[in-house]
Specification:
Shape: elongated
Helix content: 25-40%
Distance between the termini: 62 Å
Order of helices and strands: HEEEEEHHH
Radius of gyration: 23 Å
Structural class: alpha+beta
Low-confidence stretches: 148-153
Strand content: 5-15%
Mean pLDDT: 85
Length: 153
């Protein structure tokens, strides 16, 4: 390659096979979809732990863009604190297809539970469940789960 104003003689250019402009993408193509989904769940667990702390301190939860109180995965019932783990708006089925779990009578146990779930996700223990939800969600977003027009009637 001759040196021109458009193509200066850069020492590293001998390693370049092709130049061009990549299409913009909202996700990193180097990370597989399961890892992205697991990271989203782990990030959401951190947010939920923050909400647990706010509730424990008696402070209000933050408001979302619509002015409504943030959504929590946990709630106080007569028998104790219940929670689920979610991928987006979908609850992840954990045991016997059930997603809701009684954690205990004290709110602090919910934080410990979220830490244990984060460790389990990092260890790959929930890969099957998260992977299934991620695949279903991706298919739905791509329109692959819609029924053909003749079947919809």
């Amino acid at each position: 390659m001759a040196q021109t104003p458009e193509h200066p003689a850069l020492s590293f250019m001998k390693l370049v096979q092709k130049t061009g402009k990549l299409a913009k993408s909202s996700r990193n193509k180097r990370i597989d979809p399961l890892t992205l989904a697991k990271n989203k769940v782990l990030d959401a667990l951190k947010v939920q732990k923050g909400y647990v702390a706010l509730v424990a301190e008696g402070k209000p939860l933050p408001k979302n863009d619509a002015g409504r109180e943030a959504s929590t995965w946990f709630s106080k019932q007569t028998d104790g604190w219940w929670t689920s783990i979610r991928y987006g708006q979908l609850s992840i089925p954990i045991a016997d297809g059930q997603a809701d779990m009684l954690i205990g009578p004290k709110l602090e146990t919910v934080t410990a539970f979220y830490d244990a779930v984060a460790d389990a996700i990092a260890a790959g223990e929930l890969d099957a469940q998260i992977g299934k939800l991620q695949a279903e969600r991706s298919a739905a977003l791509a329109g692959k789960t819609r029924k053909p027009a003749q079947e919809a009637a």
